Prior knowledge:
The protein has helices spanning 3-6, 59-80, 139-152; strands at residues 9-10, 16-20, 23-27, 32-36, 42-46, 49-53, 83-90, 95-99, 102-106, 113-115, 121-126, 131-136, 162-165.
Amino acid sequence: MSRIGRMPVALPAGVQVQIEGTRVFVKGPKGEIEHTFPAEMQIAQEGNEILVKRPSDERQHRALHGMTRALINNMVVGVSTGFQRVLEINGVGYRAEMSGENLMLYVGYSHPVEVPPPPGIGFEVDARTRQVKVLGYNKQLVGQVAADIRKIRPPEPYKGKGIKYLEEKLRRKAGKAGKG
């Protein structure tokens, strides 16, 4: 059996789960998420845990087993503690600031780039360290918004200017060789 799929999902205090067939609704202090899972997976709540079972050992069922459990765990973690992705801005004169709810990026274009947050997403800007935090309860949406922000000015390989993930390692290239 799947090692991930076998593990129960523990429900922290303040998180309510409602299971209606293949639809799972999770509500917590940060927000609420719903998701429809494949009909083959059996999802049950026993006390303070959610268990996922599969009907057979077919390849497709094994794949869905671990994925279903991981998605439910991400839903529970998201509504209880939330997710964040940290971006770092490098470059002379490159900076970010908040304008109300919107994120304003000054990254070398002739105009500032305004990024409005989708519902369920928030931004935090630390001007001193030039870091932008993307916060939210939906893991997929947090990652997608962070990727969209990075796409505005990806880091270039020569000087490293641009927007990169905090944990990202850049492969730097040597510049032009001098006359010799």
